[in-house]
Amino acid sequence: MFKTIVIKEIRDITKSKKFLMSFPAAALLIILSFYVGGRWFQLNQHRYEAALAGNLRQMEGITDWIMVKHHIFLPPQPLAALVNGVDNDIGRNIEMFGQGELESGDSRFSDDPVFAMFRFLDIEFIFSVVLALFAIMFGYNAVNGEKETGTLRLVFANAVPKEQFILGKMTGVLLTVIIPLLLPILAGCLILMLMRIPMTADDWIRLSLIVTAGILYFSVFLLLSIFLSAVTRSSSTSFLFALLVWIFATLIIPRVAVLLAGRAANVPAVDEIAAQKFSFRSQLWAEDVQKMNRFTPPRTGNPREMMDAFQRFMGDLSRKRNEKIMAYAKRLNEERRNLQNLQETTAFSISRISPASNFSLAAMHLAGTSIELKQHFLDEAMSYQQSYAKFLSAKTGGLLPGSGMVFRLIEEDDEEPETINPHELPVFEYKPATLSALLDYAFFDLAMLVLFNLIFFAGGYAAFLRYDVR
Amino acid sequence: MKNSEQSLSHPEKFKVDTSVMLEALDLSKRYEDGVLALDRLNLQVRSGQIFAMLGANGAGKTTTINLFLNYIDPTGGEARVNGITTHKNPLQAKSNLSYVSENVTLYPNFTALQNMDFFARIAGKNGLSYADYAEILNRVGLQTEAHHKKLKDFSKGMRQKCGIAIAIIKDAPAVLLDEPTAGLDPQAGREFIDLLSRLREEGKAVLMSTHDIFRAREIADEIGIMSAGRLVLQAGKDELAGEDLEKLYMEYMSGSKQN
Ligand SMILES: Nc1ncnc2c1ncn2[C@@H]1O[C@H](COP(=O)(O)OP(=O)(O)OP(=O)(O)O)[C@@H](O)[C@H]1O
Ligand SMILES: [Mg+2]
Predict the structure, then answer these.
(1) Which residue in A has a C-alpha nearest to residue B92's C-alpha?
(2) Which of A250, A285, A421, B68 has its CA 20 to 30 A from that of A175?
(3) Residue B38's domain is classified under what CATH number?
(4) Which residues have C-beta within 8 Å of that of residue A350, sequence separation ≥ 6?
(5) Which of A154, A160, A164, A468 to mutate: most B Cβ within 10 Å?
């Protein structure tokens, strides 16, 4: 009996005009999103390599490491091209200093606003917006549509248990709509391979988890619309309700969550913080200038010794000043970070009542492009900063450029100074967040998606048992 | 209220008579909005018998059939199919029933044969082939060309024939027909009468509601006239032999005659 109903459902959907027309469109969009992601990655890889080369090129001809302006770059990640998240909005470029604060700049969109368009074709968007609609289309009249055509009445003139009918129907709908969607997804993966996108084993695992999250999200909307079709009399009513839920889940709740979070915590703007840091730095500088005025080098008569003493004095000042600035900046940053955390937690908690947010957050976490990416890049840059500082002080004899002034005595009689070799610079090896860390982040949202599935499954099931089949 | 409609005070009525296939015992239905659609209906249909229910719109014919199919629960009395009380044992009761609705609608994207296949299977007939389905479709007068057509391209008469074919393939001992000839052309109506007499020959108990007095008179063994949820007249074919049924019907409808 169950099998008969499942097969009937599969046939009924696959023979319908709406399936024959909308399925190719959805498949095309999915394949396109993989292709666009692949191209986007290639393009970014290209720019990344150009940026690296440019960074080294601008160091050519420099004779003193102290003069070097070194930049490191966030390398493009294949998954970030598929699920953009904040990947295009955060700065991808950090100017390296041997000490002091680091700041990222130059996001992709600030370079090339036209690429902001591409965000509408990543798989996260295709799933959360387009496929949810697709799911609604196939679920909204699952039960009340059969009542409208009268087939429900005829089916239940037979010894058909209601439990089996609704379970068979749900199974049939889920199978018929989900399995064909796996085909374009597989085709998309194949395209990534053909394009030779360097996906690691971890990347593939993460991608399959993203797809799993997508399927879970898709089935939330299928089960939700089946549920709605079992609690309303007419299919036009259930369609309307399903659309309303879709609008709220994908458009309204995430935005309202951000608005409400904005009220929950007043995070000072970056500029405000920067201004505070700047005035603190100026104040320290003014104090140090006074100290410099009072400095009297030992009168040994040897300019070299005098210079060295001055150098030490200046180095000392600069180090102390820097420590103060760092401590101050750290405090400001921490305060801001705490407020920001509060804001983000509030926004996420509120938006998590929407399955669309659950999916988006899970996908971004798994792709490593959620809000944590910026901090992760900075953390990576800071750990690089240590090896860079070590390298620099070895090269310059203990001097770290980055703040304050550096005086060097250039002796006329020295031979032509040698140019530096930029390739000696330690290489910045960016390590993306580990799979287990990402899974930790994504776990809650994946669990929420499972929960939504269970709720709507149980709701649809219970509603149908009480459904009037006449 | 519920108790007054339940007449368990007549236990002799609840005895099972094996040749009685369809039976209503003080069957009552009051809808949620308070309409008493069926008021202590008693009727019996035996195997090999055709019972025609006549009655004005809203008389309670469809309600009676819905109660036999347990689409709704009675508020009093009970409906039995082959001795099984429908609201207590709905699945078992329904496996003894074939049903053709007033307006047969099948799966529009399926062909006649595919619809037959699905409904045969859920009726518990699993071993049948498409040749078997085609044979029955031919028997109800659906030409072979139409067997592979999708139901959405069928006319009302063609759909009705399909519905009858589905009822036949289930081969249940009792058959419920709700205005099966409504909208059929004279030729199809004629063929339908032949199908009904064939069902009778096979020993089925047939309960049909109809507005077609002449067809009812032609084919039915028992005729009941319903009015406002009550069976106001029940008579056998022989008792009505000399009577003008249409006149009788009008008289009962206008209330000038009471049972
Ligand atoms: N779901 C319902 N809720 C409330 N009242 C109903 C419902 N279904 C039917 N009725 C009422 O019950 C009474 C009997 O209706 P029923 O459909 O059984 O009549 P019928 O004899 O089949 O009429 P027709 O010849 O028009 O098909 C009518 O008064 C009708 O309004
Ligand atoms: Mg009726």
Answers:
(1) A159
(2) A250
(3) 3.40.50.300
(4) A253, A256, A257, A260, A261
(5) A154
> Average pLDDT by consecutive 10-residue portion of chain A (470 residues)?
93 92 92 91 89 86 80 90 83 81 70 60 85 92 92 94 95 93 94 93 93 95 96 94 93 82 75 85 88 79 80 84 86 84 81 89 89 86 87 73 53 65 85 87 93 96 92
Number of structural domains, chain B?
A: 2
State in Å: Cα B80 to ligand 2 middle: 20
Q: What part of B 106-145 touches A (C-beta under 8 Å)?
A: 106-110, 114, 118-119, 121-124
Distance from CA of B230 to the nearest CA of A (A): 22
Atom of ligand 1 nearest to the CA of B64: 18
Residue B194 lies in a domain: no
Bridge partners of A73, per DSSP, are A93
Q: B209 and B258 in one domain?
A: yes
Domain ranges of chain A: 1-470
Residue range B83-114, pLDDT digits in tens: 999 999 999 999 999 999 888 889 999 999 99
Q: Does residue B204 share a domain with residue B77?
A: yes
Protein residue whose Cα sits closest to atom 12 of ligand 1: B37
If asked whether residues B5 and B91 sit together in one domain, one would say yes
Q: Does the Cβ of B227 fall within 6 Å of ligand 1? A: no
Question: Residue A359: which H helix or E strand, with range?
Answer: helix A355-367
Whether residues B160 and B179 fall in one domain: no
Contacts (Cβ under 8 Å, ≥6 apart) of A374: A86, A90, A91, A104
Neighbours of B175 (CB within 10 A): 28
In the beta sheet, which residues pair with residue A70? A96
Burial track A187-224 (b if 16+ CB lie within 10 A, e otherwise)? ebbebbeeeebebeeebeebbebbbebbbbbbbbbbbb
- Among B29, B31, B181, say which to mutate for ligand 1: greatest number of ligand atoms within 8 Å of CB: B31
Residue B117 sits in the same domain as residue B163: yes
Question: Rounded to a whole number, what is the largest CA-CA distance in chain A?
Answer: 115
Residue-averaged pLDDT of chain B: 86
Domain holding B155, by residue range, is: 106-171
Q: Is A162 on the interface with B (CB under 8 A)?
A: no
How long is chain A?
470
Domain shared by B184 and B163, yes or no = no
Task: Please give the model's pTM, rounded to 2 decimal places.
Answer: 0.84
Q: Is residue B57 part of a domain?
A: yes
Q: Which of A16, A155, A161 sits opposite B109 (nearest CB)?
A: A16
